[in-house]
Amino acid sequence: MTQLFRTSAGGWIDRAAPLRFTFDGRPYVGCAGDTLASALLANGVHLTGRSFKHHRPRGIYSAGVEEPNALVEIDRGPGRRTPNLQATQVELYDGLAARSQNRWPSLRFDALAALGAAPGLTPPGFYYKTFMWPGFAWKRIYEPLIRRAAGLGRAPREPDPDRYANRYAHCDVLVVGSGPAGLSAALAASETGARVVLCEQDGLMGGALRDETRALVDGCAAVDFLKQALEVLRARDNVQVLARTTAFGVYADNLVALAERLGDHLAAPDPSAPRERLWQVRARRVVLAAGAIERPLVFPDNDRPGVMLADAARVYAKRFGVRAGSRALVAASHDSAWLAALELHAAGVDIALLIDTRDAVAPRLREAAARAGVDVQLGTRMRGARGRLRVRSARIEAPNGARDVPCDLVLAGGGWTPTLHLFAHVRGKLVWSDALGAFAPDNVREDLRCAGACNGALDLSGALAEGWREGASAAVFAGFPEPAERAFRVEDDWPCAGGAPAQEAPEGEAYVDIQNDVKASDYAIALREGFRSIEHVKRYTTSGLGADQGKTGNVNASALVGALSGRAAAQVGLTTYRQPYTPVTFGALAHMARGALFEPQRETPTHARALAAGATFEDAGQWKRARAFPRAGETEAQAAAREALAVRGAAGLFDASTLGKIEVAGPDALAFLQRMYVNDFSGLAVGRCRYALMLHETGFVMDDGIVARLAHDRFHVTTTSGGAASALHHMEDFRQTEFTQLRVWLTPVTEQWATLALQGPRARDILAPLVQGFDLSPAAMPHMSVREGALCGVPLRLMRASFSGELGFEINVPADNGAAAWDLLLEAGRPHGLAPYGLEALDVLRAEKGFVIVGQDTDGAQTPADLGMARMVGTRKGDFVGARSLRLPHLASAGRRQLVGLRPRGPAPGLEEGMQLVGASAPAPGTHAQGHVTTVRQSPTLARTIALGLLESGRMRIGETIHALTPDGALELDIVAPAFFDPEGTRLHG
Amino acid sequence: MLLIPCPVCNMARPEREFRYAGEAGLVRPHDPGAASDQDWTDYLFARANRKGVHEERWRHLHGCGRFLVVTRDTVNDRVLQSVPA
Ligand SMILES: [Zn+2]
Q1: Each residue of A138-164: pLDDT tens digit?
Q2: Which of A332, A362, A649, A896 is the most buried if burial means most Cβ atoms within 10 Å?
Q3: Is pLDDT of A1 > 50?
Q4: What CATH number does the domain containing B70 carry?
Q5: CATH architecture for the domain at A164-292+418-491
């Protein structure tokens, strides 16, 4: 198919380099330099998609990032299907395959449009009002239905095979946008040595300069000025120029995020090169030269394919050598649309009529139109557009009456909206400008300045001058000499005026937010419903909630809401723009942080041994922990049961290296621990240890562990695995800021020591022959004692302690010796029946004993007394962290939930952790929950289900029953003491 | 992401090296045992949550490890000053 709408010359495309592509399977040819949108238009294709909610046929509406309609899906193979790409932003390459979205079965005939997604059936608030009850229907009926009917592209299913890069950078001045203002800002800022980064979202630098064929800058064609300026910038080694790089977010302290697209525009991207690169740039000052976006006119059926922004059609003609149609009606309320009409006329587009809503315009405009032979009608507005899949005629209302004008293109130019998204990201203040008919920046920030069209300078000379001024000012701000002043001499500029935003809400399908299908009349409905704040109106109507964040519609929306509620647009304000300015791929945001690099993986010293033994693993924070060591044919549960029985019957070996370990040393170490833990350690002799509880200042248990006294002034303290960092942080906080007079130092040694727990009646028999330096006999080394010596020659810090209820030792050796010690102990233990065990068995063993796991049986709101540990709280040692809170009425009162054992009468497969405990077997809705289940385990030793829970006044209710609420009804449980096995604790003293 | 000057490391470092530690200037009662329930719960829970210039604690966790008192304007999210706690 030939490119019937391609002009014979001009533009930034290469007519000698044809590129083949397909759209919805149909082959076309474009040119190198085209976007998908310009190539489609060159082939006369306007219809590109169906709208989000109403499934209306839609066409290419703009030529830039504001494109609301022409969203396509591009498929480059498995995992490389990208939905919701704007055809205006997709650079054409040979072999590109694009598909339209949100239509079924085809773009030209869409069943949902025919069957009832019609605008009248889906008023604003539709989602809020229609799909309320019953609850189950939301998941099963409404959501799938809505997802099929509304919504844009389909997410790819395969993992993304591409690579993404990340780079941090620092600069003095970051210039966003390479149009006239950005270019001159970069020139000025870099002239005296400041480090400048200039980023441009398009592949081609220059912004509006690219399409400027009339005006002269310093006597040169604007395009030559652009080329020279870029040469100067590229030659400066303090300047980095980034094309295809969108500044999509500004964050605190001028951290600016840029997405650089490296591969998507290429026919055959290098598979080893990254697809995109995320830049995180810290800039002393940002100069925002992001330009402006043309405002649509609001009239019935203003969304028909063939209705387009006026300047977009001019850009297609100038930049891409494409006539967007054969015969255009140009509807203006701003001078820039006159330029569009004249330049399109010159490019061979027949201008049926140029209308302007204004009754009077500058005489030079009328003269220029007359010279070109373009018919003009003032005081005339759009009243509609005919044609379903392509516009056929425009209905206009002139002072002398309404009539239809046949045309295949309606070009609307309603003025310009400064692109201030990035300015707004850091809460820059916007002020209403009557001259622009839009919001403009107050532009007083030290760290971020606007220049050019985004600051309201729509003409070339204004943009160049402002860019230079802001660039120079930025260099000075960053500490560099002020560059000499430069005046740009611009001939044949096109000064602009006009552009009042929408003031009336026509009946019918007059769209304001085209992407999200929000009509002018919808704002009236929202106001009738009582919404006044523009933020509420936005959420009720969904105006501005699309992927384009209302780039074309927001100012019209504010003006319209103002007009409908008797307020000025300035009073209504704008909704908040948020990052990202344009959609960013998840790949770029994640960059290297995927898979194994998502976060660090911590492995215990015996990790390789567990892997080799076929262990199953659990992620506990960043740790990989062995859950069980199944043998051939065993399930994980069977393995855990066998391992638990081995510990009870002989011995087991567990890698407990994840436990947090802190060495507390100094003359005041004891005094410090006295204040950090509830226990009174004053009687703790050197060589002894104690189970200890740490509280938040609020009185609630935050961590537990063992405090072992190695010397008069030195302690080895363990914490939970998950709480290691926060326990240390908590202790450092009080050490540094509260108990500052205490001479004590904290050293985290978690990763210095491997900790192997050897538990079971045979533990001493296995260990004793391997230990040098002290005696392990019960008399010499009783339960809860600590010794230092050697294990087969390597340093050993041995604690006799038990989390299983059996005779047990916690063997600490230097981490590098951990794997060797593991091998040695397994070998030595084999004749005794020693088995390695994992977290599952550990959890069964401790549950049988009723030992709590902080974070499992507690949820941050338990006092020591709630856990049955009131006796551990030192009462004669004075103040400690959390002590005062324990006396607060609500912590000391009766009726608090207390730890209890819960025992079902028989097998209880439905009993789960987290279930609520209630008094009645058939509770009415709203019944008060008296507690909840915290642990459920199958005990192989007792051959039954056991559970722990927190229950109101639980300890007083031992012997009674309670009911757990399961999906299959209430399950009766006996309330018992939280110790199912060896409640006297005789075994651990063995 | 904030840049927080660390007076100990003597350089401004990105926020992710720090851990937030709540409002600064809270005074733990000298003798908590003698504090009234009201005074104690005020110490635990009452926060000024100022709009504008306020002081907050940050710990340079992935740096020197020190707790700092950072002065920040909550309106424009600018860090004005930072001293060791
Ligand atoms: Zn520091």
Answers
A1: 666 666 666 665 556 788 889 999 999
A2: A332
A3: no
A4: 3.30.2270.10
A5: 3-Layer(bba) Sandwich (3.50)
Residue B64 lies in a domain: yes
Name the residue facing A737 among B15, B61, B67 (closest C-beta).
B67
Contacts of A950 (CB under 8 A, 6+ apart): A857, A862, A866, A897, A898, A899, A900, A931, A932, A934
The per-residue pLDDT for A187 is 98
Q: How far apart are CA B62 and CA A955, in angstroms?
A: 44
Per-residue DSSP letters for A876-921? SS---TTTGGGGSHHHHSTT-EEEEEEEESS--TT--TT-EEES-S
Q: Whole-model pTM above 0.95?
A: no
Residue A287 amino acid letter: V
CA gyration radius, chain A: 37
Mean pLDDT computed over A450-473:
97
What's the pLDDT tens digit per position in A332-346? Answer: 999 999 999 999 999
What pLDDT is attached to residue A822?
A: 98
- Is the minimum CB–CB distance between A122 and chain B shorter than 8 Å? no
Tokens of A182: 């950005």
Q: Cβ separation of A879 and B35 shorter than 8 Å?
A: no
Does A698 sit within 8 Å of B40, measured CB to CB? Answer: no
Average model confidence (pLDDT) across chain A: 94
Is B32 close to A427, i.e. CB distance below 8 A?
Answer: no
pLDDT tens digits, one per residue of A694-747: 999 999 999 999 999 999 999 999 999 999 999 999 999 999 999 999 999 999
d(CA A698, ligand 1 centre) in Å: 29
Q: Which CATH superfamily is domain A296-414 in?
A: FAD/NAD(P)-binding domain (3.50.50.60)
For residue B32, being part of any structural domain is answered with no
Strands of the sheet with B78-84, listed across from one edge: B19-23, B53-59, B67-73, B78-84
Q: Which residues of A706-730 are buried (b: 16+ CB within 10 A; e: fewer)?
A: bbbbbeebebbbbbbbbbbebbbbb
Query: What is A894-990's CATH number, 3.40.50.2300, 2.40.110.10, 1.10.10.10, 2.40.30.110?
Result: 2.40.30.110
- B15 contacts on A by Cβ (under 8 Å): 252
Correct CATH for A1-156 of 3.40.1180.10, 3.40.50.2300, 3.10.20.440, 3.10.20.90 = 3.10.20.440
Query: Is B30 inside any structural domain?
Result: no
Q: Are A344 and A308 in contact (CB under 8 A)?
A: no
* Nearest chain B Cα distance for residue A676, angstroms: 14
Residue with more model confidence, A64 or A120: A64
pLDDT value for A126? 63
Tens digits of residue pLDDT in A898-947: 999 999 998 888 999 999 999 988 888 888 999 999 999 999 999 999 99
With 0-12 CB in 10 A as exposed, 13-18 as middle and 19+ as buried, what is A895? exposed
Query: What average pLDDT score do residues A34-54 get?
Result: 94
User: Do strands A292-294 and A47-50 pair parallel, antiparallel, or not at all (unpaired)?
Assistant: unpaired
Domain that holds residue B75: 3-25+40-84
A598 and chain B in contact, CB less than 8 A: no
Residues of A in contact with B35 (CB under 8 A): 884
Asked if residue B35 is part of any domain, the answer here is no
Alpha carbon distance A586, A593 (integer Å): 11
Would you say how long chain B is, in residues?
85
Write the ipTM: 0.98
Instruction: Name the residue facing A253 among B1, B33, B37 (closest C-beta).
Output: B1
**CA dihedral over A780, A781, A782, A786, signed as positive or negative:** positive
Please give the sequence-ordered ranges of beta strands (E in DSSP) within A33-80, or none if there are none. 47-50, 57-59, 71-75
Q: What is the CATH number of domain A602-656+752-778+799-861?
A: 3.30.1360.120
